[in-house]
Amino acid sequence: MADLNFPDKQLLDKLATLLGPQGFIADRDLIAPWLVDWRDRYHGESAALLAPADAAQTAAIVRLCAEARVALVPQGGNTGTVAGATPAADGSALLLSTRRMNRLRAISADDNSVIAEAGVILSDLHDAAAAIGRRFPLSLAAKGSATIGGLVSTNAGGTQVLRFGPMRALVLGIEAVLPDGSLFDGLATLRKDNRGYDLRQLLTGAEGTLGVVTAAALRLVPAISGRAVAWAGLSSPRDALTLLRRLEERTGEAVESFELVPANALALVLRNIPGTRPPLDASHAWNVLIEAVGGRGADPEAMLEQGLAAAIEDGLVQDATIASSEAQAEALWTLRESISPAEKIDGHSLKHDISVPVLDMPAFLDRERDRLEAHFPGSRIIAFGHLGDGNIHFNLLPPPGEDRLAWIARHGAEASAMVHDRVAAAGGSLSAEHGIGQAKLAEFARLTDQPRLHTLRAIKRALDPLGIMNPGKLVPPE
User: Fold this and answer.
1) What span, in angstroms and rounded, lies between the C-alpha atoms of 156 and 140?
2) Using CB atoms within 10 A of its CB, is residue 329 exposed (0-12), middle (13-18) or buried (19+)?
3) Does the pLDDT value for residue 275 go beyond 80?
């Protein structure tokens, strides 16, 4: 790929004229919050933040930067955890924010689809779908700030993957500006389209390295008639997986979320998040948060109550509670969704977003937790997340009393490599839902087979020969 240039005054002046004061921001104080990743580990620089109002302005930006051979870093809500939207520290790239492109262009209950621009906030999309008796079945803790463009570009997962799959399964079409400044219009809501390579799927999960997603056509599903949310305490991840399969047998597809929470993660939330309360009278080594939904004529609370009662009678579940109101349901969900914020408040830790085959996850958790904690005395593993789809956040906290940053500087690389090696040995992935970004680039290169790396690099070279789209992310250098 060709050498890139730093943005000069001539380019910046052209961009300022194109975008006007709302879309061209060079004030360092205004840009500063967007130059740091969510975990506050990577700090970048940029001469300007570019905020186009529509796809046409986005295309004009990319054409100007391609002509000048200046890199662009697309950014949505900046809620990612692998620094995929953080520019380089040398200031060589311009930040391109999609947040001003925040219109819902179309929404249809008859077609079960919505066309949302890249800057639409996920929670706003949820509200719009609910208003027409539909729902968008992807949710995550950052729903109040995560944007559709970012969710598409990272192939986001969340708590409903168990039934509906990740973002890739919900994307019907994409509009994107390609690295040469051309506009790919693939927003038709076709359920079948057999015209060769699927550019929609190629751009989903590309982390902005192949273009800028400006809008997406997304699948909607019917609204639910009711939901039931429960919290159950049990002794092991193996029991949790057994419980999930039993509930599925009883309820069919009613169980949409099944989240594993260990005692130490719950304790972290109760200690650091004001207003949270223990869900059960006693502490349990492992817990699961379960959400079941009902369609017409179905009673999810009754189904869940019967299933949990049978599990308690069999000794599979030690104790359980079912929310009796929406407020109680939200309080239970707050316990799960506050784990990452509670970790952040508690201090720096090593985050691992991993997946292994679902059947193997319980044994992996027991075995590798013991292995890591023995190898690094005093350290603690907090392993939580989406047991039903094999995605667990396998995080390591330094020993109490240690300077966490100093400990991570000494042991972090070795510890993460050890986790990733064990995941690879189990046939898993070092990135289940958060992507590669720049945080996992070196480990991705180390553990990835050559055919996959060769293909990724070939696609990047073919579509972005100048290398201007989000350099240093996702695709390891040769």
Assistant:
1) 9
2) middle
3) yes
Task: Find, among 437, 361, 47, 26, the residue nearest to 208 by Cα.
Answer: 437
- Residue carrying the six token digits 């219109």: 103
Q: What is the pTM of this model?
A: 0.90
The tens digit of pLDDT for each residue in 114-158 reads 999 999 999 999 999 999 999 999 998 889 999 999 999 999 988
pLDDT at residue number 40: 84
CA 233 to each of CA 88, 236, 243, 259: distance values in angstroms, whole numbers, following the listed order: 45, 9, 11, 12
What is the CA 474 to chain-centroid distance, rounded?
15
> Would you say the CATH fold of 348-425 matches that of 104-222?
no
Answer whether 92's CB lies under 8 Å from 4's CB. yes
First-to-final CA distance of the chain = 11
The H or E element containing residue 216 is: strand 212-219
Q: Where are the beta strands (DSSP E) in 339-409?
A: 353-355, 380-386, 391-397
Out of 3.10.20.90, 3.30.70.2740, 3.90.470.10, 3.30.450.20, select the CATH number for domain 348-425: 3.30.70.2740
Contact status, residue 259 vs residue 336, Cβ threshold 8 Å? yes
Query: Residue 178 corresponds to which tokens in the numbers above?
Result: 């390609």
Beta bridge partners of 320: 232
Contact between 151 and 256 (Cβ < 8 Å): no
Cβ 52 vs Cβ 61: under 8 Å: yes
- Give the pLDDT band (50/70/90) at residue 226: confident
When the candidates are 3.40.630.190, 3.30.70.1350, 3.40.50.720, 3.30.43.10, the CATH number that belongs to 9-99 is: 3.30.43.10
pLDDT at 279: 97
Which amino acid type is present at position 461?
R
Strand partners, 43: 36
Poorest-pLDDT segment among 26-40, 292-306, 393-407, 416-430:
292-306
